[in-house]
Sequence to fold (231 residues):
Amino acid sequence: MKTHPYILRRIIQETPDVRSFIFDFGEHPFAFTPGQFILVHLDDKHQAPLTISSSPHDQKYFQVTVKRTGNFGTQFYDRMQVGDTVSIGRPMGQLKLQTDSLDPVCFIGCDYCIPAARSFFYYMLVRQPERRMTLFHEVTDPSQVLYDAEFKHFEQNSPLTRVILLNQPTRPAGWFGGLGRVTPVMVRSLYLENPNTKFYAAGEYPEIKFYQQVLQSAEIPKTSIFVERWS
Fold:
C-alpha cells in the first residue's frame, strides 16, 4: 500500500492514558468518510490501523486517538512528539456513517473505542445539524470518559444524547452516571421511536460479541447494524 508522510502538530491528553494526535494534511490531503481508519506506520516493526477521530470538514488537520495499551499503542503513545513524521496509508474500513440520509444514529462503544463517534458527530454538526445522535459509552473506570468536555458542551445545544455507563457493580464516590451495561431495552426504545435508526458499534472482540447479542435481543434488523471489531 502506498503511504505518505504526515507531520504531528499537536497532542491532546484526553484521559490519563489516552491521547489525541493531530497531524497536518500537508502535501497529501485525503478524503475519508466518518468511521474509517488509516494504517499508521511508526517504524518497520510498529504499524496498526487507527480510526480517524476528526471530521472530514477539517481542511488542514486530521486526528487519531490512541490508548497506551498493547505493543503499538504503547510505543506510539510514548514516542510521538510534536514535529515527528509518520507514514500513513489511505483511509479504509466499512464502519462508515451513511451520509446520504438523516436517519438517527446510535453509537455504542467501551472506553477508548469511540473515536468514530466523534467523527460522526462533528460531520453531522456541520452537514446535518438536525440529525439525531445517541451515544452509549460504557467505561470500566470513571477516568476513561473520552471527549467528555467536548460532548458536554454540545449536549445542551445540539441533538446529541450521551449515556455514560460505568461497568462496575457498585457506585464509586463522585460518580453520578449510570451503572451496568447497555441493555436491549435501551436500544429497543430508540428503534421503536424511529425504526430508521442505524446502530453502530466498535470495540474489542468481547465487547462486539456482547453488543451484537444486545442488538439481536432488541430485535434490531441486521440491515440497520454496523460493527467494527478492533481485534
In short: Residues 199 and 225 are 5 Å apart (CA to CA). Residues 105-229 form a domain with the Rossmann fold fold (CATH 3.40.50.80). Helices lie at 70-79, 115-127, 148-155, 184-193, 205-217. Residues 115-127 form the longest helix (13 residues).
